[in-house]
Amino acid sequence: MIFPSPPDVLGGPELKAFEINAQHISGSRFLQIGAYTGAATLWLHSRFPEAEIHDVDTWTGSPLHPEQCSDRKWEEVTSTYFSRVKDIAQIIPHICTSNDFFASGYVDFDFIYIDGDHSTEQVWRDALGAWSHLRLGGIIAFDDYHHIKGDVPRKAVDRFVSGHNVVVISDADLIATQNGEPRQRWVKRAN
Ligand SMILES: C[S@@+](CC[C@H](N)C(=O)[O-])C[C@H]1O[C@@H](n2cnc3c(N)ncnc32)[C@H](O)[C@@H]1O
Description:
By secondary structure, the protein is α/β, with parallel strands linked by helices. It has six helices and seven strands. It has one domain: 3-Layer(aba) Sandwich (Rossmann fold), CATH 3.40.50.150. 31% of the residues lie in helices and 21% in strands. It has a seven-stranded mixed β-sheet, with helices on both faces. Helix 3 links the parallel strand 2 (52-57) and strand 3. Bound molecules: S-adenosylmethionine.
C-alpha cells in the first residue's frame, strides 16, 4: 500500500518500526490514541485486515496543548482521515479526547498505540488508561520515545515501564533517530 506524504506525519521510519515489531501483536481488537490522517490506521488494517481498529482523536489537536500540530489544517487532516476509512467497517472512529474514551466502557484491547497529546502528563494519563483497557499479554506502543529533553513522552513512558509488570520489546530499537534513540517504545503486559 502506498501512503501519500503530506499531510501525513507518520513516515517511513515509524512504519518500519511497526513492521519489525508487528510479529509480537496477536488478537484482533486494536486501539489508537491520536489517529490524525489515519496513516498508522491504514498500515494496521493492511497488516491485520480482520482486526477491529478503534481510533480516538479530537481531530482538532490537543485541548491542553493546541500548539502541537498547529501548522496543520485540521479540515484537510480530518477529511483525509474520514475519506480513507469511510468504507472500512473494521475501523471505528471515536471523536473525543483520550480521557473521555478511557472513561467509557471499552475494554480488553490486544494492541494500543499511544500517539496523541505528547506532553509528559497526558502520556502518563494515556498510559494508565491503556493499562486498564489492555488484556493480559497485550501490547502498548508509544510513539516519539526518542525525544529526551523537556516535556516529552519518554519521561512518562519510563515511569510507566518501571512501575508496571511489562516486558520491553526492543526489536525495533535500532530504527534510530538523529539522536540515536529508539523512535518508539513497545511493551507487553506480563500480568
Ligand atoms: C501525531 S498525531 C497522530 C498521528 C497518527 N498516529 C498517524 O498515524 O498519522 C497526534 C493526534 O493526536 C490528537 N490528539 C491530541 N491530543 C489528544 C487528546 N487529548 N485526545 C485525543 N486525541 C488527541 C491530535 O488531534 C492529532 O490528530
